[in-house]
Amino acid sequence: MKSVDIRELRKDDLQAVMKIDEVIRGFPRPAYWERRFINAEGIPPWASLVADVREPQSNEVDNRMVGFLFGWASIWDFGLRDEVGWIDVIGVHPAYRYKGIGRALVNEFSRLAKDRRRIEKVFTLVNPEETETPGFFSQIGFARGKLVHMERSAGHFYDKAGGLNGNRTLSAPTRRKTP
Ligand SMILES: CC(C)(COP(=O)(O)OP(=O)(O)OC[C@H]1O[C@@H](n2cnc3c(N)ncnc32)[C@H](O)[C@@H]1OP(=O)(O)O)[C@@H](O)C(=O)NCCC(=O)NCCS
Asked: Domain residue spans in the chain?
């Protein structure tokens, strides 16, 4: 029986993470992942984790990465008073799904958030039109929270009364003269 190790992300994990992501999505995203790895350097190391599988009686775990989780921690963002752990990307290689690896990644992220930062809550966002993550997160204990996702069109001009004024290009705000 293979065992699974959850550990912090290293710089040299880039190729393995990109390979898994390509299997999941069906196309490569090198620019996205290069940027994510640069960003991960500015985030506490416990918030970016990977899962390696290990053969019995073997210490060789490299090149056997089968899953990853990228998260972060926020304080005061979105008006939230307490520090919160956020999971924004999770992926497990399709050949290793339904073996508890996704759960192990989220459990370890949650444990580290609590131990290192006394974080009480872990948040994520899911797209209900997407088939995998909503069911997975529900199954491992996530429930709908109080925050509401809001959005608007970026390319439209909204006047003071809240009316939509067509497709006019947004211009830079006019500067008010100080009295
Ligand atoms: C979602 C995902 C991470 C789950 O990983 P996994 O390793 O297969 O999950 P686990 O084996 O740890 O599953 C934990 C529990 O969730 C359940 N589960 C897993 N995937 C599920 C799904 N798609 N729907 C419903 N339940 C699911 C498992 O049956 C298990 O339940 P149990 O309590 O009865 O044991 C994986 O399917 C994946 O990487 N999908 C692609 C995600 C993606 O597109 N990511 C990019 C955007 S964030």
From this structure: 3-139
pLDDT tens readout for residues 1-23: 578 999 999 999 999 999 999 99
DSSP, collapsed to helix, strand or coil, labels residue 177 as coil
Q: Is 1 exposed, middle or buried (0-12, 13-18, 19+ CB in 10 A)?
A: exposed
Any atom of ligand 1 within 6 Å of the Cβ of 125: no
| Predicted structure pTM score | 0.89
Ligand 1 atom nearest to 131, measured from its CA: 23
Neighbours of 177 (CB within 10 A): 5
Q: Is the CB of 103 under 6 A from ligand 1?
A: yes
Q: Tell the CATH topology of 3-139.
A: Aminopeptidase (3.40.630)
